Structure formats: structure tokens, C-alpha cells
Amino acid sequence: MKTKNITLKVNSELYDKYREICKKEGWIVSRQFEKCMEAELEKRGRENVK
């Protein structure tokens, strides 16, 4: 799978809180964002999500 670097602007407090959750759970923030995008595409009926 080819990857792409992106830049996002998000609420700092929100990001810090979510990052802590990811750290405690052993998750990677970028992978969680990918999963969110995959779920949204699936919800909208797109094929070949992964």
C-alpha cells in the first residue's frame, strides 16, 4: 500500500486528548484516521475501500 503524507489542522485540545487515548491503547493516530475515512467511504457505498 502506497502512503501519502498530509497536513491537517485540528483543535489542539481535541487532538491532545485523542492522542492520549491512542497512546494508552497502543494505537497509531494516523491509522485511526484511516479507519475513520474507510468507514465513511463504506457508509457512502464506495467499493474497493482498502
Write up what this structure looks like.
By secondary structure, this protein is mainly α. The model has no long low-confidence stretch (mean pLDDT 91). The N and C termini lie close together (9 Å). It has a domain at 14-43. The chain has two helices and no strands.
List the helices and strands and how they pair.
Layout: H1 12-25, H2 29-43
Quick take:
By secondary structure, this protein is mainly alpha-helical.
Helix amount: 55-70%
Q: How many strand units?
A: 0
Average pLDDT number: 91
Report the major sheet.
none
Q: How many whole angstroms does the radius of gyration measure?
A: 13 Å
**Helix-strand sequence:** HH
Beta content comes to under 5%
Overall outline:
globular
| Helix and strand composition category | mainly alpha
Q: How far apart, in Å, are the first and last alpha carbons?
A: 9 Å
* Unreliable residue runs: none
- Output the number of helix runs: 2
What attributes does this structure have?
single chain; 50 residues; mainly alpha; 58% helix; globular
